[in-house]
Amino acid sequence: MRNRVMAGNWKMNKTYSEAVELATGLAAELKDGTGSVDVIVAPPAVDLKGVAEVIEQEKAPFALSAQNVYFEESGAYTGETAPSMLESVGATYCIIGHSERRGYFGETDEDINKKAKKLMEHGIIPISCCGEPLEVREAGTHVEFVTDQIKKDTEGLQITDPSKYIIAYEPIWAIGTGKTATADDAQEVCGAIRKTLAEIFGQETADGIRILYGGSAKPTNVAGFLEKDDVDGALVGGASLKADSFAAMVKAAM
Ligand code: PGA
Running DSSP on this structure, what letter comes out for residue 240? Predict the structure, then answer.
C-alpha cells in the first residue's frame, strides 16, 4: 500500500516573510492532520529555514523539500547548494529534474541521476521529475520518451526502501498552462513508468515507489487523477501558492 503524496512546488515565488506566512496558513488549514497523506512543501532555497521553523513551532503535518541541489559535497560551485546544506536546514525531500530546470538551465538526465545518488547518500528523498514536450505528445511517442528518461535518471540507483524515491510525471505542455492532461493520459504514462521500474528494480520495489502527476493540478481536478491505479499523488505548482487551495487538495487525497 502506497501512502499518497501531495507536494507543493512554490517555484520562484514568495519572499521570506511571504513563505513564512504561507506555511503558517497551511499549518492552520491542516491542524487536524493529513491522515496517511504525505504532505510536502518546496519553497525557494532562501525560504527553507523559515518554513522549517514554522513546521517545528506549529508542529505542522508537512515536510520540507528543496527545489534543486548540486551533486558535489562542497567547493567552488558558485550559486549552488550541497545536499548537506539542505539537510542542515531540515529539508528531507528535494525536487530534481523539473522541466523548468531541464529547459531553462540545461539540466540533463545524467545530472539528474547524479543528483539522485547524492541525495540518497544523504538520506534526502528525491522527487525526480520527467515528462514530454508538446511535440512529442503530438507525435504519439510520449510513453517511449518518458520511460527513456526514467531509465537514464534511475541508472545504477540502489533503492532499498521504495518509499524513499518519488517520481513526478509532468507533461510539459500541461505545466502552468491551465491545460491538464486527462486522468487517463496520466494513468497511461504513470502505468508505463511503473512497468519500467519493475523491469529495472523488480515488481516489489516498483509497487512501493510513489508516482505523482503534475501539470495544472488543482482542487477541482485532483480527485480524478488520484482515482487512477498508478497515480499516487500530485506535484502542484500554482495551486500550492494559497494555503486554502493546497489544503483542499490534501483533503481530496485523504
Ligand atoms: P502547475 O505546476 O501546477 O502550476 O502546472 C506544476 C509543476 O511544475 O510542478
Answer: G
